[in-house]
Amino acid sequence: MQGPSVSRRQLLAGATVSAASLALSATGVSPANAQQGGSMVSPQFLRQLADYGSFPLPPDRAQELAPQLAGPLDAFRGLRPANYDALAPATVFQVPAEG
Amino acid sequence: MSMQELVYLSLREAAERVRARQVSPVELLRAVVARTEALQPRLNAYITPMFDEALAAAQQAEREIMAGQYRGPLHGIPVALKDNYWTRGVRTTAGAKHLADFVPTEDATVVAKLRAAGAVITGKTNMHEWAIGGTTTNPHYGATHNPWRLGHIPGGSSGGSAAAVAAGLCYAATGSDTAGSIRNPAAYCNLVGLKATYGRVSIYGVVPLSWSLDHAGGLTRTVEDTALVLNAIAGYDPKDLGSANVPVPDFTASLATGVQGVRLGVPRPYFFEGVAPEVVAAVEQAIQVLRDLGASVEEVAFPSAAQAPLIYPFVSRPEAASFQEQFLRTRPDDYGDVRPNVELGGVILATDYLRGQRLRTAMREELGALLTRVDALVTPTVRAVAHPIGQSFTEVAGMPVNPFTLGVGLTVPFDLTGTPAISVPCGFSPEGLPIGLQIATRAWDEPLALRIAAAYERATPWKDRHPPL
Known about the structure:
A: mainly alpha, B: Amidase signature (AS) enzymes
């Protein structure tokens, strides 16, 4: 379940990580729980991802978005309650009573 | 009765006078139209006034009432709509340039219900672009000003609705709440704003921001008025896949019951951190009032609420990007400053989106367990009072804040859980800007939230204060 490891030193050294650290402190997530991912989010990576999804994202926009995603991503992926594996998503498919 | 007294009647008071034929719907409408024409240049509350249609509706209501066909408390009452509610034959912009010429061919379910209740629709109110933001400083339709202090934001995204109700331009208005967009402007403008349980009020015909988080509701000057509006708009709607087929109570029924024996929880961790001292002081006084009224108060913790600002974008942004993908493709330059928020959703992985949705389940379970120990949580609604337009606070009480955590950091947990939460006025800052108290209850227990809010409102003078316009 874990992504490639990243040391705390690397975590604290990266430019994008200062934002992640802020998010971590704001949410009570310890860096030890955080999963890697944010450090891979470069503008080029986002462009490739957008191309893969046929999503309209010009290069200058990818430049702006990369730090916005990279900052919170590790902290977000570090949110893992004890019962996480048993959790269903809040959105599930419903069939209306009317059919 | 002076014009000022007439426009500041509560919805209930106006309705009683209409029912008793002491005031006609046309008189009510003329009063609010005259006031709107005087104040719109300063407030910019409306994007599209609908005064001609409103006059026709008011005249029809007058005929019906004179003929003994009184429909109920909203009959003949001027009500405004946030401009993301579809209105048949009237443009619905959602505050976006993309929809500047969008004219729906049908009404949103809530609009249809309001019309069926006899409400007189006065127009479409300004809002934050696409409802993605909390200032109502709209790049396409101008900034709405807070009636309590021109030059300050009214909150948002339902800021035009809040400004209209607070300024006496209507007796109620609709809003939508995805992260706090009903409760935040309610707090900033000395109003009552209720986000009911997800599924209680149909979102069919409300321009989507994020389907799984969008809630429709109303803003009013009193708690009873909020209950009356909810009575009119709640109910199952097969057109809305998230709508719940559950019994709809009379939301006014328990307003006078009081709070004797009600167990209130105060979650100080997170909800009282990074909050302006004047807001904390007002909320602490409010808690003491509720204690004096007979409620018991205990300290509790809702730890996952602190994660809400982190979880929210991973759920809301992909949903927004999905809805707006075609606009991003064909008219990217028509966005204002919300463009990055929408684009971000296009590069969030599906597994991360579903992680967010699973974490919502965890939040709901945690809150559900907490709300077996206590009946309701009481918190500040917003971290600080309204700030000047274009000059957001970057720090509150010594803690850094961004526009999101400042404006909706304390409200968004209850959008993620889908459970009810109401904001009720609880005082003013030293410079005269309003402060809100948030009360959150169990799913489907809007009656208790309204009951606690009503008890507090009766014991305090805030609803009787009006902005110095």
